Amino acid sequence: MVSFKDQAKKINIKLAEKLKIGEYQNLDIANIKTEVLAGITVALALIPESLAFAAIAKVPPMVALYTSKYQWQL
After folding, report:
1. Which of 32, 44, 47, 49 is paired with 64 by a 20 to 30 Å CA distance?
2. What does each C-alpha distance from 54 to 20, 46, 57, 67, 74 come to in angstroms?
3. Cα separations (Å) of 2 from 10, 13, 15, 63?
4. Is the pTM of this model over 0.85?
């Protein structure tokens, strides 16, 4: 039987691989600030754009927000 701690370690490792956390371990404070600013900038630009396209396509706004979520991952 696998212990709870072993299962939690496996899940944490899989989650870290999925989120690519290892790539960000060598960032310093200045780079973290620029990464956060870039993420906020993309979100502020992409959300209104996707809502506008939803209005043009006459689909519910939630559809646009779900599809914009997948654009962020590209």
Report:
1. 32
2. 31, 12, 5, 10, 20
3. 11, 16, 19, 41
4. no
CB atoms within 10 A of CB 64: 22
Tell me how far apart the terminal alpha carbons of the chain are, to the nearest angstrom.
Answer: 39
Neighbours of 50 (CB within 10 A): 19
Residue entry with tokens 């039987």:
1
Give the Å distances, CA to CA, from 64 to 38, 40, 72: 21, 18, 12
Read off the tokens for 19.
């989120």
Band of pLDDT at residue 3, cut at 50, 70 and 90: confident
Residue 50 near residue 67, CB atoms below 8 Å:
yes
User: What digits encode the pLDDT tens for the residues 15-58?
Assistant: 777 767 666 666 677 777 888 898 889 888 888 888 898 899 89
